[in-house]
Amino acid sequence: MWPCHLPAVSVSRYVGFIFLLSHCSIASPFFVHAPASRFLTGAHQAYLKGDFATLVDDIRGQLEAFPWDELAKKNALQLVERALVESKRQGLKVSWHLPKEFSLLQINSARTDRDGHVYFRLTLRGDGRFIKIDQVKIVQNGTLTLLDKRGKVGACRDFGKDRLDFNERFTCSSPILAAPPEEGLYSIEIEFDGKRISGWFVLSGLTPETSPKILSPSPYEELTTNTPTFRWSGYLPSADSKFAKFSCTAYVTPQDNQASRWFIHFPTSKRRGSLPDAFVADLRKVGTRVGASQLDTGPYLLNVKCDDTWRFGDLTLGSERHAIRSFVVRSP
Description:
By secondary structure, the protein is an alpha+beta fold.
């Protein structure tokens, strides 16, 4: 049963508590099964106290012990998202930490629209002062392995310690999925330079529903200029978004050498509301960070990618919206 004596907290937090309860059926298993009720009761009490570190630990206990309990899982994930809003976009603290060698470890629920074909993946990218990543493994709800470098599930790329033109030292992605990665509890293991990390995270509220819309060029269009103009409609988060950071990037890659990138510059912001709805990028005007200022003849890919991210301990969790357009540059 729920406790009768609740701690003294702000009215707004009680309102949030009642909001969460209103979304739960009275038949929800956490009212029926004592073990599940123990975890969720602890999580709700921690929420009322503003103790989000304890809340996240209790949510982990619930999802780990009862992964099949869908109604309780739904309530637990709603509680995580509510706590994130209450944290003023500062993120949630957890009981484990990345080693000092890592300056970035970001995990995304990714949606890609490539020439009208939509697919999903779980992606990871990392940066820091390390030499070699030997193993990356991510398991969903204790049963489904989405990434396993050593076991050859998904794919990983190590750009090397001297690779300075990307914002990451290594990247990984799961096999292509027909649906977004399921929300819930995930475990992560990374082995690097003879060391090992074991951690966990909760994926919630990160399912991307749309991708940027590329307006020009059209799929597989043949262009007769080596300084093309690209047009697309972007994505803007809502003003009350729980995410701490919003960013977009665009770049062009040769289809046969996607390690080479021409980056397209356009205004962006760490916060929301400062981007226009439409973008126009012209290589003649914006210049590049990598490669020449014009494209040779051949097949290319235009990539437009927008991320919403928030912090989960030392991890960055994100919702990645990616659009890819195939085109060809022919001689004028």
